[in-house]
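R.M. (postdoc): so does anyone remember the format we settled on? I'll just put the structure tokens first.
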């Protein structure tokens, strides 16, 4: 399963290119594999370019860390514990289970808001790569992997108590996270406190058993390694500000109605109002010309077209179409939609923007749809184009102070203090020693 699925995972999220970090996880991964219960397997360790805080394994020895989880580790020992846990899933041959509906509604945020299946059919299904990332293990398997994680990380000389501490960070992330974040690492554990206590016990047991001359934490060396790591969403892949969506790479923007949610999924952008039955969906159209794209769309969904207009929208040659999909057996499930196809003359892409609602409710939404569609524009503002992602910056604290004082000293905005406390696995009131290092954002 792993060998077949690995290319999909990599294609979907992309690998995060960082030679130093990659060399580190390879070295520790191979070292740990040798002391594991399946030392002869060919393991591969990869960093995925995703802000989600997650690590997962596929059968056959494929182990993934997101850049999001790497940003949240505060020392090598935390990383080693999670590495051991994931290798544990492989060595204990845990076949991944089905992802849960709860997780689906978190990731399929927008689709989950829309009640009508006939409206939802126009949105992409959750992609294979995301499904794989969402796969979860049973509680028994998780607890067995915790045990193996402690054993393996202790065997290569790390303090497995740090792994328990990282569970607390994960717990804080899932409490504070907005929609769209999916810390599946903890999701199958209804009681993280038990897990925390148990891992501490196991860590003590293994340290007594092996009696190595000291167990490493390696905080500063880990922090130096993640200095400059991209943090959070990468705005180069599209971002929203004040109900306008901007795509700096593809150079377009469009507004969307206030009160609507927007999900920038890998293959399409979905928008929907809360608790109502309508969607807008933006993505690539198939076909080389506007009329080819329109024909393919009509074919795909079996539409009755009532109106077609050629027009120019802010410089884009466009085709606007109003159509219905009629359900003879159940007229209440018929939908009405308006779709625009835009031709981008710079790269020959054809984009489509769809607004769809149940037929009897269409009029309620049509002005919202048209407002978004008629304001699709080329992005020219250099400030909007030249956005850069945020990065982790490691700074030195010259004298003893609290984390809060240290954040102020580094001009971090107050509204992000709680987030930064979690990122540093600390409380704002925690005392830092002179010459210690913390993570800030730049
Ligand atoms: Zn697990």
């Amino acid at each position: 399963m792993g060998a077949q699925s690995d290319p999909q995972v990599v294609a979907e999220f992309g690998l995060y290119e960082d030679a130093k970090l990659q060399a580190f996880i390879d070295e520790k991964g191979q070292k740990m594999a040798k002391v594991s219960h399946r030392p002869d397997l060919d393991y591969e360790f990869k960093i995925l370019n995703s802000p989600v805080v997650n690590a997962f394994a596929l059968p056959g020895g494929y182990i993934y860390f997101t850049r999001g989880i790497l940003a949240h580790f505060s020392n090598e020992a935390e990383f080693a514990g999670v590495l051991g846990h994931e290798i544990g899933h492989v060595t204990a041959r845990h076949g991944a289970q089905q992802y849960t509906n709860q997780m689906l509604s978190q990731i399929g945020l927008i689709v989950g808001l829309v009640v009508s299946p006939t409206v939802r059919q126009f949105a992409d299904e959750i992609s294979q790569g995301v499904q794989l990332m969402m796969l979860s293990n049973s509680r028994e398997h998780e607890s067995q992997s915790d045990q193996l994680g402690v054993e393996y990380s202790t065997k290569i000389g790390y303090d497995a108590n740090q792994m328990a501490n990282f569970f607390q960070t994960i717990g804080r992330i899932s409490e504070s996270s907005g929609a769209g974040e999916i810390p599946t690492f903890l999701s199958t554990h209804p009681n993280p406190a038990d897990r925390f206590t148990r891992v501490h016990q196991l860590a003590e047991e293994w340290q007594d058993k092996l009696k190595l001359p000291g167990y490493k934490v390696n905080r500063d060396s880990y922090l130096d390694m993640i200095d400059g790591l991209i943090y959070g969403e990468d705005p180069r892949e599209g971002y929203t500000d004040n109900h306008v969506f901007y795509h700096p790479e593809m150079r377009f923007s469009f507004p969307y109605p206030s009160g609507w949610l927007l999900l920038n999924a890998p293959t399409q952008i979905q928008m929907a109002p809360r608790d109502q039955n309508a969607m807008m969906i933006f993505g690539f159209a198939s076909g080389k010309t506007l009329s080819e794209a329109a024909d393919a769309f009509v074919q795909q969904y079996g539409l009755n077209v009532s109106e077609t207009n050629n027009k120019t929208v802010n410089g884009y040659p466009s085709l606007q179409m109003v159509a219905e999909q009629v359900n003879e057996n159940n007229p209440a499930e018929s939908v009405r939609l308006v779709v625009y196809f835009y031709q981008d003359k710079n790269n020959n892409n054809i984009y489509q923007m769809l607004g769809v609602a149940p037929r009897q409710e269409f009029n309620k939404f049509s002005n919202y749809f048209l407002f978004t569609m008629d304001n699709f524009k080329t992005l020219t503002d250099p400030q909007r184009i030249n956005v850069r992602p945020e990065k982790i910056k490691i700074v030195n604290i010259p004298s003893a102070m609290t984390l809060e004082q240290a954040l102020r000293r580094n001009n971090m905005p107050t509204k992000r203090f709680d987030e930064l406390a979690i990122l540093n696995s600390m409380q704002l009131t925690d005392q830092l020693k002179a010459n210690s290092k913390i993570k800030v954002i730049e």
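R.M.: ...and that's the designed sequence above, right after the tokens. Also worth knowing: The longest strand covers residues 304-313. The pocket of zinc ion is lined by residues 85, 89, 137, 142, 145 (CB under 6 Å).
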